[in-house]
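Feature request, filed as a ticket because there's no other form

It would be nice if the structure record came with a short human-readable summary line next to the tokens. Right now we just get the raw output. Example of a typical job, pasted below so the devs can see what we mean:
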Amino acid sequence: MSDFIMQGFENFEVHGSRKRKVVSDSKMTAVKIFAAIFGILLVCELCVYFFVVPCLDTVEISWSGLSSYTKESMNSVISPCANKKFMNFSVSEAKSLVMSVPGVESVRIYKRFPNKVNIQVNERKPVAMTFVSSNGRTIPVEIDKNGVLFNGTANSANSDTSLPLISGIPVENIPEGMRIPQKYRALMEQIDTIRSLSQNYFAAVSEIHVIPKEYGNYELVLYPIHSRTRILTGRQLNEKSLQYMMVALDVVNDLNQDVDEIDLRYGSVSYRSKSDARQRGTGEFGE
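Raw output as currently delivered:
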């Protein structure tokens, strides 16, 4: 009797083991099928991402670094490239179109799969403004520290009080994007240095007039905003010379209210009244 019972238990154990093995094999098969389906879907998605979208979808362009220009205006500049597919988008062509804008100093363009294009723009920063003739009209243009002329936007010349007006530079009918003559570019660098100071010196100067001299040299005439007296000085413009100009203007005006011109060119202060009675003072003028 006991032998029969033990044999029944053994048969039950073998049958249960086979059943568990069948269930385990079924689960493994299901996992394999699921993994195969997932792998196929992943391959299909990668094919769409790397091949279908770049070939069929139009590029999405994003801009960074814009302040004076709007995205809409820059999109119109690169319109020949804007509606192209990612694979056909030419970085060199787009860069050439963006660089055709005079107010753009440099540009970097990055392509990102599957259809992204990022354009990073570095705009020119004006240090001064002047006037040029265009189509029979006189229009304001801005000048950067490298002497490049470009058309300002957003009324920057009117809103930025640290942007001095430069006159006398021979830039008649020179198109924007061109540079002013080489000998005047040092003046732009000097103005840029002064504008970077904490004190806004050019808020007290309405105009800087350039007087060309022989042998490629030049001198400067400064017109203070709150005075009718003009200041004659050399070609070196820096913080010390502007401070000295303001002190000399206050002192001379206290002595004589009829001063038309103050001359600081020769290391001493001299002034001329409107009655042409020229008087000289002493003082040291350091550059």
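Something like this underneath would help us a lot:
The first strand starts at residue 60 and ends at 64.
Helices lie at 2-56, 71-77, 79-82, 91-99, 156-159, 185-195, 239-255.
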